[in-house]
Amino acid sequence: MKRICTIITSVFLIVSLKAQSNFSIERSDTIPMTKAQIYDEAKRFISEYWNSEDAIKNDDKETGIIMVKGLIYKTINYQFEHKYIYSYVAKFLMKEKKYKIIIDHVECISAICEINVNCQYVELCDGCEYHESSETYLNERAWKYLMNSVKSELVGIADKYEKYLKSSSPSSPNW
To answer: What CATH number does the domain containing 63 carry?
Structure first.
């Protein structure tokens, strides 16, 4: 019985730690545009930013949602070259005079070191602390650089989308 309690507690802790590691960004605001106008502007933004029809995974004008799957490529030079690929999902939601962008499901899908060794995947998370591991081959400084670089790129997508929408708005002087 004691062993079962220990196993259940261990599983609960592992699940709790994994749940905390998901990084996401959410932005929403009101804007003087119809749902159809926001949808059209979101489609234009997506076509300019992602350059691929394959990126769109769900496109439903009626319900006001567009889902895009994207990739981020990062190279870190620490002792030797490390190449990481992160995938993410960007959801563009729209209603009359409201928009929302959510970027989540960020996941490291590839980690290759220059010495042609598969490095340990480095998952992106908020509030994580560096834990030294011989499998990542990264020191704390390189790890923080990688985390901040990927987060910065994801935040940049949300920032660019908001700026794009607001510059397209009828109340914008550029309209």
So the answer is: 3.30.530.80
**Domain assignment of residue 78, yes or no:** yes
Structural domain of 157:
22-168
- How many domains does the chain divide into? 1
Torsion angle of the four alpha carbons 39, 44, 48, 50, in this order, in degrees rounded to the nearest 10? 30
Q: Is 151 in contact with 145 (CB distance < 8 Å)?
A: no
* Cα 79 off chain centre by: 27
- For the chain, the maximum distance between any two Cα atoms, rounded to a whole number of angstroms, is 70
d(CA 127, CA 147): 11
Is residue 175 assigned to a domain?
no
| pTM beyond cutoff 0.70 | yes
Q: Rounded to whole angstroms, how far apart are CA atoms 66 and 56?
A: 7
Q: What is the reported pLDDT for 133?
A: 63
* Confidence check: pLDDT of 166 > 70: yes
